[in-house]
Write a structure and sequence with these properties.
This protein is an alpha+beta fold. It contains 9 helices and 4 strands; from the N terminus they run βαβαββααααααα. It has a 4-stranded mixed sheet with strand order 2-1-3-4, covered by helices on one side. The termini are far apart. Bound molecules: glutathione (GSH).
Length: about 210
């Protein structure tokens, strides 16, 4: 299995797929393509038909888009989704909401693990999206979280979907209270998250357009 990803500091979509692959216990070769430098588009297209990362290649089968990759990995490692049908439906709902929404947060609080942009990025629209994310976290933890520290107890693809938000909240100094805050702390302490973060800190490329508040 191969996973094509972008820069670990910046590529939020890559992180989602990578976290599902790690949490699923898969052995995979990681192909990291630094984004937005000469040749990167051609390099990505040599693996991924969409021209985007992440892209998963499993015995010749090409699966692109982080949502499809998460679903594919969960078919092979069913513990990546909750066992209960209702919990599984909600896990998919919050994952889909994350995948298709939160445009203001993406724009004003882009993932940038190495930076401390505390206090930056707030607009009324961003703050409304932050409130919605905190409400999702509190709701999932209260209804489904009894079996562990993650949204549905054990780590699922829903946690992978929110992994970039956790790094964003730290970069931009967003500090939820209560259950959501405890969830954020658990995610930032997750060994796979820490492995990704350590690699992001070692990267030397900068994407100036993503360093929003320098
Ligand atoms: N909906 C896609 C989005 C993928 C995406 O936008 N990836 C960005 C990096 S995070 C990318 O490949 N950008 C390179 C480019 O557009 O040339 C997914 O979930 O995988």
């Amino acid at each position: 299995m191969k996973l094509i990803i972008g820069n670990k500091n910046y590529s939020s979509w890559s992180l989602r797929a990578w976290m599902s692959a790690r949490a699923g216990g898969f052995t995979f070769e990681e192909i990291r393509i630094p984004l937005f430098i000469p040749g990167s588009r051609e390099h990505i297209l040599s693996h991924s038909p969409s021209g985007k990362v992440p892209c998963l290649i499993d015995h010749g089968l090409v699966v692109w888009d982080s949502l499809a990759i998460g679903e594919y990995l969960a078919e092979k490692a069913p513990h990546l989704l909750p066992a209960d049908v209702a919990a599984r439906a909600v896990a998919r709902a919050v994952t889909a909401e994350m995948h298709s929404g939160f445009a203001n947060l993406r724009q004003h609080m882009s993932m940038n693990i190495r930076k401390d942009y505390s206090g930056h990025g707030h607009t009324p629209e961003v703050d409304a999206e932050i409130a919605r994310i905190i409400a999702i976290w509190n709701d999932c933890r209260a209804r489904f979280g009894a079996g562990g520290p993650y949204l549905f107890g054990t780590f699922t693809t829903a946690d992978a979907a929110f992994a970039p938000v956790c790094f964003r909240f730290r970069t931009y100094g967003v500090k939820p209270d209560g259950a959501a805050g405890e969830y954020l702390a658990a995610m930032l302490a997750n060994p796979h998250m820490q492995e990704w973060e350590a690699a992001a800190r070692l990267e030397t490329e900068s994407i100036k357009s993503e360093d929003l508040y320098d």
